[in-house]
Amino acid sequence: MRPLPIAPFDACDQDSGRVSSQCLVRYKTNDYSVPVAFGHQDVWIRAYVHEVVIGCRGEVIARHPRCWDREEIVFSPIHYLPLLERKINALDQAAPLQGWELPEEFATLRRLMEARMNRHGRREYVQVLRLLETFDLADLHAAVKQALQMGAIGFDAVKHLLLCRVEHRPPRLDLDCYPYLPKATVETTRPGSYMRLLSGDAEDAA
């Protein structure tokens, strides 16, 4: 009986490939997406029973459920968001985003952003989606709902609320940088107002 290997056996099929101009890597008969920053670079591939892992040098850059069909394309919409942020007019026609189901609050946020900031609002919406590169969908969804409830429609507000949620601290929003939001006028309290209120209470009691 020989001793077990020092490193555990990695039960996968290992291969190598090159990222195409569409930011896709072919393994067997299927294509898997990678972030646009790795276009035209050499990558390594580890194919497990249920997952395909793609890396560049010592970094894992993509994970996908393994597809056992043939001639299929497996997209991750998040991989293409940096490109769409620059080419914002392609947002609705981008193939990687087709069928991407997000909570309905995201559509509401986009509609309000575009209504208030036009083209820039669409770009800020993509910036909100790019937060998924770092944070979980559940946390971002909660931040978007909170922003809608507060009427703080903007990327900076959503990011601030998201960080506060992750770091477990109360939000402190400064809305001065959102000139398109409706402003509330708060008047200075005057002693005469209290006197009128008190006299009115006295008349009601009589």
Choose one word for the global shape. Answer: elongated
Beta percentage is: 15-25%
Low-confidence stretches: none
Strand order of the largest sheet: 1-4-5-6
The run of helices and strands is EEEEEEEHHHHH
How many structural domains can be distinguished in the coordinates?
2
What structural class is derived from the secondary structure elements? Answer: alpha+beta
Counted by DSSP, the helix tally is: 5
Average pLDDT across residues?
89
- How many runs of DSSP E, i.e. beta strands? 7
In helices, the fraction of residues equals 25-40%
Termini separation comes to: 102 Å
Main beta-sheet strand count, sense and barrel state: 4 strands, antiparallel
Q: Using the CA coordinates, give the radius of gyration.
A: 26 Å
Short characterization:
By secondary structure, this protein is α+β, with helices and mostly antiparallel strands.
What does this structure look like?
The longest helix is centred in the middle third of the chain and has 27 residues, at 104-130. The protein folds into two domains: 13-74, no CATH class; 80-177, no CATH class. The mean pLDDT is 89. It has five helices and seven strands. The strands form two sheets. Strands 1-4-5-6 form a four-stranded antiparallel sheet, with no helix packed on it. It has a three-stranded mixed sheet with strand order 2-3-7, with no helix packed on it. α2 packs across α3 and α3 packs across α4. 19% of the residues are buried. The chain is α+β, with helices and mostly antiparallel strands. A hairpin with a 3-residue loop joins β4 and β5 (51-56).
